[in-house]
């Protein structure tokens, strides 16, 4: 099984009104809330650690000094 196919659960608390608005926006884009959250996380990780982040799985940002 590839690394991308493995999953882990992330539980978060969110304001019910924001959740409702988020779900409505996701429906407009024809994506599930889970798909959108995974996209947000993927974009954030790549923005912080770069596209080769998997090579540095200890989770630390690269040293940009």
List keywords for this structure.
65 residues; single chain; mainly alpha; 0% strand
Low-confidence stretches: none
* SS element count, helices: 2
Q: What is the CA-based Rg, rounded?
A: 15 Å
Shape: elongated
Strand content: under 5%
How many β-strand stretches? 0
Distance between the termini: 37 Å
Average of per-residue pLDDT values: 86
Largest sheet: none
> What is the N-to-C order of secondary-structure elements (H for helix, E for strand)?
HH
Multimerization status: single chain
> Which structural category do the helix and sheet elements fall into?
mainly alpha
Percent helix: 40-55%
Notes on the protein architecture:
The radius of gyration is 15 Å and the shape is elongated. Helix content is 48%, strand content 0%. The chain is mostly helical and 65 residues long. The model has no long low-confidence stretch (mean pLDDT 86).
Summarize the structure.
The chain has 65 residues and is an all-alpha fold. The chain contains 2 helices and no strands.
What is the topological layout?
Elements (H helix, E strand, L loop, with lengths): L15 H14 L3 H17 L16
């Amino acid at each position: 099984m590839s690394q991308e196919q493995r999953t882990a659960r992330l539980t978060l608390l969110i304001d019910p009104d924001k959740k409702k608005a988020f779900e409505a926006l996701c429906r407009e884009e024809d994506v599930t809330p889970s798909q959108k959250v995974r996209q947000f996380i993927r974009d954030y990780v790549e923005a912080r650690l770069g596209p080769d982040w998997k090579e540095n799985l200890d989770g630390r940002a690269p040293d940009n000094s």
